[in-house]
Every structure is written in C-alpha cells, then in structure tokens.
C-alpha cells in the first residue's frame, strides 16, 4: 500500500499541525491525544492544557450542550462521520460558532512517537471549523466574484442572476421589463491619452450617475470593458425615455483636472418578453441592438428588432468569410476613371475593392468594408489595397508609358496607425512609382478621430508628394474647420448632392457654393456619381474640375483600364 502512495510521506501529526482549521485526535473517552495550533488559537487553550487533561466536549458551550445533548452522539456510536454545528466557548468566555466533524480512525493510525495502543482501541479525529471567520471570507469571496473591481457595481455574473430572478418573477406575474446595455465610446483612446486612472475614473463616475437613475428599484451592473447593463421595470415609450435620460447623464462632461472629458455612448434596448424570455437571448439581442447603435458613431439608442438580428448574423458570416478572402485571393481591384470636365481626359482613377466569393458571387464593398472596419480586418485589407494598387499602377505605367493618378480609399482606422505612412512609402518604392501618381481618399471621419496622428500622417504624405482628397464631402459632420487645418488637395462632392441637384435648385446652389469655397481654399473639386449628360453639363457650368460616374465609365479592371488609357494598351 505504502508504495502506491509515495507522496504520502507526511506524518499524521505534520498534516494535522499545518491544517488551517482546528484538528484534534482523541481517544474513545474523548480525551485529547493531540491538538494542532489552529485549535489552540481557536480555543485560546494551549496543547498542554488540553492533551491528556480535557475531553473535547469541554470545549462546548455548557448551556447549549445541556440543551442539545442528544444530538451529540457518543463516540463509539459514530459510523463513518458525524457533523454538526455547535457553539464553543473560548478561554475568554466568548462564544464561537463552529462546525464539528468527528470520524473514527479505524484501524488506529500508527502515530509516530506515540505509545503503543491497546489492541482494539479506536481513536477519533475531530475537525473544528470556525464558522464566523469562514462566513466572513465566504461573503468576501462572494462579493469579489460578483462585483466589478473598478466601479464596485454588480458584475456580469450577478446581473445575470438578477435577470434570471426577474424573469422568473415576471413570468409568474405576467409583467414586462426592459434591459439596456450602454457602452462608452473612445474609452481606449482616453486611456491611451490620459492613462488608466482617467479611464477608470470615467467608469466610476458614469457608474455613479447611472446608479442615480434608480431611486428605489432596478439593477445596474458593470458587465465588462466599458459596458453597463441596466434593468428597469419601465417598458415601451417610458423605457425609451429612460434610455434617453441615461444617455444624457453619460454625456455630461466630466471634469478631469480642469479638462472637460466628453463621453459618447451607445445604448441597445431589449424588451422582455417580446424580444426573448431567457437571460441569454435577452443579453445577446441587447448586444445586437448595441452594435447597431454603436455603428452611428455618436450618442445613439437602438431597440432590438429581428431585422437587426438578420443583419448581425450576415455581418458575422461576412467577417468569417472575409478572414479567408485575402489568403484565397478572392479580392481584386477595379478602377473608375475621373474625367476633367473641360476636356474629357482621364486625369485620375479611383481604386475600388471587389470581392468575388466562389459561392456567393460579388459582395459589395458597401457591405463588407464596414464589417472589415468594425472587426479590424480593414488594416490588413487596406495594406493589401495599397500594395496592389501601386504594383498594378507601376505595371501599367511601364506597359503604356502613361498613367493617370491613382486614388485609393483609406479608412479612418488605417489612419489611426502610426505605420500607415511607412506602408505607403514602401509600396511606392517597391513599385518604382513616383508619389505624385498617388492620391489618398479620406473621409471626414478620419479627420475627427485622433487628430494628432492623422495630421502627422497627412503632412508626411504631402511632403512625400502624395495628394489628399476628402471623400463623400457634405455627408459627414461637415465641419469646415478641417478644410483649412489639414493639408488637402481635393474635395469629392458626394453622389447624393449630384443626384438631387437636377430637381432641387437649393441643392444646385449648395453644390455651386461648395465648388466656389473649395476653389477659394485652392482645392480641386471632383463630383461623384455623375450619371447623366445634364448633370455633367451643370457641374461644368458651376466650375467643377473633375467628374466621376457611370456616365463617363463604370469601374473597370486593370486590363480594361490599359485599353482606356494607353496608346500601346491594345497590344
Ligand atoms: P466611395 O469611395 O464613395 O466609392 C464610390 C462608389 O460609388 C463606388 O461604389 C462606385 O462604384 C460608385 N459609383 C461610381 N459612379 C457611380 C454612379 O454614377 N452611380 C452610382 N449609383 N454609383 C456610382 P463601390 O465600388 O460599391 O464602393 C462603395 C464604397 O466602398 C466606397 O464608396 C468606399 O467607401 C468603399 N470602398 C471601396 N473600395 C474601398 C477600399 O479599397 N478601401 C476602403 N477603405 N473602402 C473602399
Ligand atoms: Ca472614394
Ligand atoms: Ca465617395
């Protein structure tokens, strides 16, 4: 037997001495044979006072023992184990609540150094656990595992428990409630800029403010990252009003050492029982609504709908497929000419990404680029676009001796990366392409994020000779301030203006004003989405420099472009 347990080298006394709770060994009369340090501490009595002198029953509170005598079995009657809750009296007289466990040691353990036992004499081992301390540490453990360390609010685990309880209660009473998930935007950026302390402070303050929304009932929790979950009895329009108030409280500026921090947040809403009748479904669907709200990039509230869920499922599917698209060479580029209105020449082409999925066919960039941006895949895909566009352009130049400037679309996320400039410079180098052949199209969003990083990259690109265009002008925040602050070459008027222009004189006037303003700032203007000769003529009359649209050409492949531009292209 011994050989089977080579690790059991500890003597019983050593194991007993080190135990974190009181332990003793007593003989058949209950007299202590051995006690450990924890028992001495618990009782306030030393081993000398206990061993051979007292029986274990003497530790009991006499009054309680007298009352409950029948519950404490005589040792010989104990089968495998006895366990009961009792009150002990310390030496000082203070009571202590313990759990007492007794088991016979049968056959008697050979105690090292102990005198030989009479054959048949059975020893008993007692374990005494201090319940007051145990209860405290258990409560602490429970608290720690059910609350968020930063905000001290209930965490995901506790929120789920409460949600389940609420569901059970509302199932019985046929009542409804609402769950909201609020997420703070830009918290990571804030942490990078001002440090962890600032980010934690924001979470704490927002947590406090949200807690203030619940005067008597309801539940609020920190459910990880920068998300809060709220449970309210309000439903319908009252719940919407509640969400709006929550958003308002979050948006109040936070004073951080004299700086006003403006926090944006998104809120997703689900209703019980309409949107789901179990906690997991409700939380998942609240997350779907939250993603839709977050896509707005500002303070926004969205309610869950099955249409949103369909979108979310499709987005997830696209993300999964997109991860493989690069490796499996399912992506390629097409080029759409931009024509000088005065002479009809192709001065420039815009690079547009195409995804040809073997089973699903063409998937529009309008659908997959936002997914790529959200999942972070855009950084990898964007780099591929930059390299491929430069390589194909270099080839075209060598083949035809002629090359219009090539514009590439760069997402705001790519602009947040410090290495964007290096990637572009390298791609130009590798393709032996002069930087003046390249234009970068950015959206207004890129100029609104981390302005320092964006400004740095823009200046570096301009110094290199790369041109900068603002895409979709007029659709975003339309803050004109950045037109003077950033080193830009071109404005691209969004297609929606061009479409509305013909039937809407006010819109026509607006396009005219944009063109005049751009020229005053020494920017060139390209109109997007020109589909008719009338639109082209109107734009030319307004002084627009270039135009792009189906009227001139749809996007074409690299070889299609070679045919369009090169006298040698036919070869
Ligand atoms: P965008 O940058 O505004 O690109 C112009 C879009 O308008 C293209 O759609 C183009 O095919 C379409 N278009 C051009 N002329 C006309 C016209 O006369 N009428 C109409 N109805 N549409 C016209 P596409 O290729 O589907 O791209 C959609 C969006 O996807 C782009 O909008 C851009 O935001 C994004 N995208 C495309 N390629 C890339 C890329 O390589 N990188 C990034 N970050 N985004 C890209
Ligand atoms: Ca574009
Ligand atoms: Ca555009």
UniProtKB/TrEMBL annotation:
NCBIfam families: GGDEF (TIGR00254), sensory_box (TIGR00229). The lineage of its organism: Bacteria, Pseudomonadati, Pseudomonadota, Betaproteobacteria, Burkholderiales. SMART domains: EAL, GGDEF, PAS. It comes from the Bacteria. Residues 8-72 form the PAS domain. Residues 315-569 form the EAL domain. It holds the Pfam family EAL. This is Bifunctional diguanylate cyclase/phosphodiesterase. InterPro entries: Biofilm_reg_signaling (IPR052155), EAL_dom (IPR001633), EAL_sf (IPR035919), GGDEF_dom (IPR000160), Nucleotide_cyclase (IPR029787), PAS (IPR000014), PAS-like_dom_sf (IPR035965), PAS_fold (IPR013767). Residues 175-306 form the GGDEF domain.
């Amino acid at each position: 037997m011994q050989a089977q347990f080579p690790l059991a080298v500890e003597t019983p006394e050593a194991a007993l001495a080190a135990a974190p709770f009181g332990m003793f060994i007593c003989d058949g009369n209950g007299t202590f044979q051995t006690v450990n340090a924890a028992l001495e501490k618990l009782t306030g009595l030393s081993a000398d006072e206990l061993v051979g002198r007292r029986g274990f029953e003497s530790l009991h509170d006499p009054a309680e023992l007298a009352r409950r005598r029948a519950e404490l079995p005589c040792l010989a009657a104990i089968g495998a184990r006895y366990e009961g809750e009792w009150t002990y009296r310390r030496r000082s007289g203070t009571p202590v609540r313990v759990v007492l466990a007794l088991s016979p040691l049968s056959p008697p353990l050979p105690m090292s150094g102990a005198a030989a036992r009479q054959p048949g004499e059975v020893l008993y081992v007692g374990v005494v656990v201090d319940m007051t301390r145990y209860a405290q540490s258990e409560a602490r453990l429970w608290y720690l595992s059910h609350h968020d360390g930063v905000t001290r609010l209930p965490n995901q685990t506790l929120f789920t428990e409460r949600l389940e309880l609420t569901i059970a209660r509302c199932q019985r009473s046929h009542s409804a409630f609402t769950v909201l998930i609020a997420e703070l935007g830009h918290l990571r950026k804030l942490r990078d800029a001002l440090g962890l302390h600032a980010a934690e402070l924001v979470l704490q303050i927002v947590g406090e403010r949200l807690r203030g929304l619940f005067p008597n009932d309801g539940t609020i929790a920190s459910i990880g990252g920068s998300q809060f979950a709220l449970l309210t009895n309000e439903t319908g329009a009252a719940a919407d009003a509640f969400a709006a108030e929550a958003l308002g409280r979050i948006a109040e500026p936070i004073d951080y050492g004299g700086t006003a921090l403006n926090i944006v947040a998104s809120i997703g809403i689900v209703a019980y029982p309409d949107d789901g009748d179990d906690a997991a479904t409700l939380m998942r669907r609240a997350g779907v609504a939250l993603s839709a709200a977050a896509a707005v990039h500002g303070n926004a509230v969205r309610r869950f709908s099955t249409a949103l869920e369909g979108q979310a499922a499709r987005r997830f599917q696209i993300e999964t497929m997109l991860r493989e698209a690069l490796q499996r060479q399912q992506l390629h580029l097409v080029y759409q000419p931009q024509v000088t209105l005065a002479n009809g020449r192709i001065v420039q082409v815009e690079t547009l990404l195409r995804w040809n999925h073997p089973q699903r066919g063409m998937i529009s960039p309008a659908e997959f680029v936002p997914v790529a941006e959200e999942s972070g895949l855009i950084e990898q895909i964007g780099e591929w676009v930059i390299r491929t566009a430069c390589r194909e352009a270099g080839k075209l130049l060598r083949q035809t001796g002629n090359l219009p400037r090539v514009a590439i679309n760069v997402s705001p996320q790519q602009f947040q990366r410090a290495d964007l400039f290096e990637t572009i410079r390298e791609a130009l180098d590798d393709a032996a392409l002069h930087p003046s052949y390249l234009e970068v199209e950015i959206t207004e969003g890129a100029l609104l994020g981390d302005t320092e990083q964006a400004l740095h990259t823009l200046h570096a690109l301009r110094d290199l000779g790369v041109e900068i265009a603002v895409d979709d002008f007029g659709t975003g925040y339309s803050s004109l301030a950045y037109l003077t602050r950033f080193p830009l070459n071109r404005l691209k008027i969004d297609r929606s203006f061009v479409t509305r222009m013909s039937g809407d004189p006010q819109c026509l006037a607006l396009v005219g004003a944009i063109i005049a303003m751009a020229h005053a700032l020494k920017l060139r203007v390209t109109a997007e989405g020109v589909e008719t000769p009338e639109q082209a003529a109107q734009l030319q009359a307004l002084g627009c420099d270039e135009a792009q649209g189906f009227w001139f050409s749809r996007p074409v492949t690299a070889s299609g472009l070679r045919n369009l531009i090169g006298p040698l292209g036919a070869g």
